[in-house]
């Protein structure tokens, strides 16, 4: 290394150490000014991608907040929406939406039904081709390249409207909420023993996606682990007279939650590895499982009905009429409309959470209650020194 550069990097490393010391010893850190959020995942954070790509969302979705189906699997806002609001940013436009988008403050690459790993056709649910993490990252790269070119070509300010500033990419927050559909596909097509062996490969595919984003300049990562899939209302409603031990002590399907816990254990370990491997990045790992499980187990205390109550949808005797749909069952026409007050429910449609539940969860994860570093969302750009990351465990 050139001597001059070495001196500069020495000075920088001293400055960084001082900053780190003052951060550790200080009472507060500066808030990060994220100009944009780029999100990747499945229906838990899809703000309209699936609706744009496949079938437009139907009523009564969106009724609580948007007063129209807004492409979300909920009556209102999702956790990612509350995160954007927390920074005063507009709600994220889906990358695939062709109308009315604004990408100045980020884009959403999440698509309902998506997995981390590519599935082959025999594993699709209802024939829906999902957008695995790898494809979502390719779409981001395409987005970055094209928006940068358009931004630079623009001769007037008005031509840049709705485009991100090229310099903003590296200052943005990159968020992930995925894995639930990999588990669901595993439960559909494999034995537990077979699936456990697949988990490392799934986690590696997610890590590849993160590394590829890092190579594109992404630096601040906020990674949700996967939720308690064994507590989904639609599953619980179909269980009658379970064998002893089939349910855990809070009445959720034990083997499914155990698989989610194993997945999360390996994901957390991988995030720790990535912290070392990608030293310029800040990683925050969020225990979404614990946050959702806390809501589910404290439901009554927190003013919610039981986890198995579904606001919108008909799921009796193995007949499923999904939220907003009509069907004839046993000669009777069923319209699966919504409940009177969605804010009493945890589950919106049997699989996804209501706005009230999402709001509850978002409050906890935004203030750092479920972050491994205990950093709130507003400080997700700060890299803690490796040592203290280890100690915090
Ligand atoms: C699809 O994946 C399953 C599970 O991994 C495998 O058993 C099957 O052979 C695959 N089918 C094709 C056509 O690749
Ligand atoms: C149809 O109705 C009969 C009589 O009420 C009931 O026993 C049966 O379980 C119903 N079938 C379905 C599929 O709901
Ligand atoms: C985070 O927010 C929740 C819900 O408002 C609150 O109960 C909790 O005490 C807060 N935790 C911290 C660390 O601020």
UniProtKB/TrEMBL annotation:
Pfam families: Lipase_GDSL. Gene3D superfamilies: SGNH hydrolase. Residues 1-25 form the signal peptide. Keywords: Glycoprotein, Hydrolase, Signal. CDD domains: SGNH_plant_lipase_like. SUPFAM superfamilies: SGNH hydrolase. PANTHER family: GDSL-LIKE LIPASE_ACYLHYDROLASE (PTHR22835:SF546), ZINC FINGER FYVE DOMAIN CONTAINING PROTEIN (PTHR22835). Belongs to the 'GDSL' lipolytic enzyme family. This is GDSL esterase/lipase At5g14450. It comes from Ziziphus jujuba. The gene is LOC107415221.
